[in-house]
Amino acid sequence: MLKFPNEESVHKYMTRSILGRTVMEVLAHGPTRASVCEQLKALPVAETSRYCSEENSFCWRVHSFGKKIKQDKRLDLIHQFMVNLPLIGRVDLENPDDLFYICEDYGPNPNSAPEEPFYVYVGRKVTEGQRYLAHQYSVKTRHFIGNTSMDAQLSLIMANQGGVKPNMFVFDPFVGTGSLLVAAAHFGGYVAGCDINVNTIHGVGKSSRSFGKPRGEVTLRGNDENILANMRQYNLHDRYLDVMVSDFALNVWRKQELFDVIVTDPPYGIREKTRKIGTNKHYDELEDQTLEGHIPSTMSYHLADIFKDLLNFSARYLRLHGRLVYWLPVVNADYSDDHIPQHPCLKVIANSEQKINMTISRRLITMEKYQSMQNINPLDQVEAEIKTRTYEGSNAIRKIYFPNNSGSQSHNKSLPLT
Ligand SMILES: C[S@@+](CC[C@H](N)C(=O)[O-])C[C@H]1O[C@@H](n2cnc3c(N)ncnc32)[C@H](O)[C@@H]1O
């Protein structure tokens, strides 16, 4: 049970709740139905008069956890409880002014659920959360997607963690197909991103929507499979600033303290090896005319460097009190909180685990920039630091994810990690 100062604050809270279904004002609760009925009967008139009037239509619903309750039993329950409240308005099953819930908890194991519930709550619905948004923005019906498009519900949760509010400047440095930008734009952020993959940014190459055929001519969706088209699909295009092809390892930004929120899903090297622009060859051997139109070669981008770059970048380019939100893959056997990459200007304010399998999880890390780079003594360490060797070397997590081979399963579309 949660305590709120008033109903207004509940409504405000639930306008941002992606996972919460319904908030109800608890009128009575206890380990037996009889004790709950007694409490309902004893409710003061001053309280019940808010909803027990001739003008107020009402309806009752039964929710059971850990056991299925048949329809006739549900009706019995409703009759048993409703007589204890002096409801005198009309019943409206479709659109009642007040909706009352009987919630019965039969424990976590439906196979051995007891005859009687462990605990019973009776409450009045106050408001609902935003779970429908996961459906509204589902990648299943999205115009432009790729193999690594982030699930809509997680994207919205990430935007929430970033505290995205209207008119904030939100940036995703590993933008891919822009799922995180869609979520940030939903909450009113102005969004921008970059990605090293020219095909993704320009919406060319093979399409995930047409079973690997080229984008554009073969898809019914026209030749604009790109992030802007997604924004148009959701009528969020007025929030779209731009995306560009750029290697995150090579900084292109001049103005510091620019972004309000950096939200991103960096590559872990599981589907594809992590790359950045560079080479071990000597470029001065190239003649001037070969440099024009030259496609630079890439080299391995170690995860340790990706996360250090991400924190160093955030410390520099986030405004004060701006937030960085990103996924960090961890090896369950040796994880501890001090393995989270650190920076003197950033502090971890949230860390939630999503289990992937027995070996690996990923953690949604939220950091806040609590001091500017200028405030730090230049003699002090102002670079990101990682106190574990987990992310060192090329394809560190990939080697743990595919212990027996180099990752031939990486073409499997059901891989949860990227
Ligand atoms: C996990 S995906 C991001 C998916 C994205 N959140 C979406 O919903 O589509 C990681 C992205 O990082 C990009 N990437 C990999 N190396 C990069 C680099 N050095 N600089 C910028 N982007 C890079 C990849 O091309 C890929 O699109």
Automatic annotation (TrEMBL):
Predominant location: cytoplasm
Pfam families: Tmrp11_N, UPF0020
InterPro entries, per database record: DNA_methylase_N6_adenine_CS, RlmKL-like_Mtase, SAM-dependent_MTases_sf, TRMT11, TRMT11_N
Alphabetized SUPFAM superfamilies for the sequence: S-adenosyl-L-methionine-dependent methyltransferases
The protein's enzyme class: transferase
Annotated keywords: Cytoplasm, Methyltransferase, RNA-binding, S-adenosyl-L-methionine, Transferase, tRNA processing, tRNA-binding
Protein EC: 2.1.1.214
Extent of the signal sequence: none
Domain of life: Eukaryota
A GO CC term assigned to this protein in UniProt: cytoplasm
GO biological process: methylation; tRNA processing
Ribosomal RNA large subunit methyltransferase K/L-like methyltransferase domain span: 141-284
Limits of the tRNA (guanine(10)-N(2))-methyltransferase TRMT11 N-terminal domain: 2-131
GO molecular function annotations of the record: tRNA (guanine(10)-N2)-methyltransferase activity; tRNA binding
Subcellular location: Cytoplasm
Catalyzed reactions per annotation: guanosine(10) in tRNA + S-adenosyl-L-methionine = N(2)-methylguanosine(10) in tRNA + S-adenosyl-L-homocysteine + H(+)
Subunit-level organization: Part of the heterodimeric TRMT11-TRM112 methyltransferase complex; this complex forms an active tRNA methyltransferase, where TRMT112 acts as an activator of the catalytic subunit TRMT11.
Family per similarity comment: Belongs to the class I-like SAM-binding methyltransferase superfamily. TRM11 methyltransferase family.
PANTHER family, sorted: RNA METHYLASE-RELATED, TRNA (GUANINE(10)-N2)-METHYLTRANSFERASE HOMOLOG
Function noted in UniProt: Catalytic subunit of the TRMT11-TRM112 methyltransferase complex, that specifically mediates the S-adenosyl-L-methionine-dependent N(2)-methylation of guanosine nucleotide at position 10 (m2G10) in tRNAs. This is one of the major tRNA (guanine-N(2))-methyltransferases.
Protein name according to UniProt: tRNA (guanine(10)-N(2))-methyltransferase TRMT11
Organism: Stichopus japonicus
